[in-house]
Design a protein that fits this description.
With about 180 residues, this protein is α/β, with parallel strands linked by helices. The protein has one domain (about 1-180): fumarase (Alpha-Beta Barrel), CATH 3.20.130.10. Helices cover about 25% and strands about 25% of the residues. It has helices at about 10-15, 30-45, 85-90, 105-115, 125-130, 170-180; strands at about 1-5, 20-30, 55-60, 95-100, 115-120, 135-140, 150-165. A five-stranded mixed beta barrel has the order 2-3-4-5-7. A hairpin with an 8-residue loop joins β6 and β7 (about 150-165). The protein is globular, with a radius of gyration of 16 Å.
């Protein structure tokens, strides 16, 4: 399925754990330190560096770009490190997250409540993922280096739906499928 950002509720309702997606459009990068700053801005009713409504955050700290490329390798970061911050962002309009690894029940509940989605990008394919990034620009917190918030333009970024609004978890489905063969 092809998706374009910003995401909306109708598109997200069509997604199910295990679906393969190609995402195009603008997405934002943010990891732990940036998430903490975003949460603090929200708690203090301050303006965010980008509008959260309908947006997707990719948990990545891209490597420095080689000449002629917008970024270097851009593999996903383990998502659970963002779990203390994700529900606040989802409550404020964030519709999608991209990372790797399972999410906490609190994040999964927030996904269901707010009609959002969690995608996985393939770990170990960072150089290939970087080829799907057409443009990158630091928009906030340059002092964080690789963890600065970047605005990325992506084209057909390959993802898999992990957590959908129906409470499904692809990681659990995968384990259950494996257990049937034991």
């Amino acid at each position: 399925m092809k998706l374009k950002t910003p995401l909306n509720n109708e598109e997200i309702k069509k997604l199910h754990a295990g679906d393969k997606v190609e995402l195009s459009g603008v997405i934002y990068t943010a990891r732990d330190a940036a998430h903490a700053k975003l949460k603090k801005l929200i708690e203090n009713n301050k303006e965010l560096p980008f509008e959260l409504k309908g947006q997707v955050i990719y948990y990545v700290g891209p490597a420095p770009a080689k000449p002629g490329y917008p970024v270097g390798s851009a593999g996903p970061t383990t998502s659970y490190r963002m779990d203390p911050f994700a529900p606040v962002l989802i409550d404020n309009g964030l519709k999608g997250m991209i990372g790797k690894g399972p999410r906490s029940n609190i994040v999964r509940d927030s996904i269901i409540k707010n009609i959002a989605v969690y995608f996985a990008a393939t770990g170990g394919a960072a150089a290939l993922i970087a080829k799907k990034i057409k443009k990158a620009e630091i928009i906030a917190y340059p002092e964080l280096g690789p963890e600065a918030i970047r605005k990325l333009e992506v084209e057909d970024l390959p993802l898999i739906v992990i957590n959908d609004i129906y409470g499904n978890d692809q990681y659990e489905k995968g384990k259950d499928k494996y257990r049937k063969y034991k």
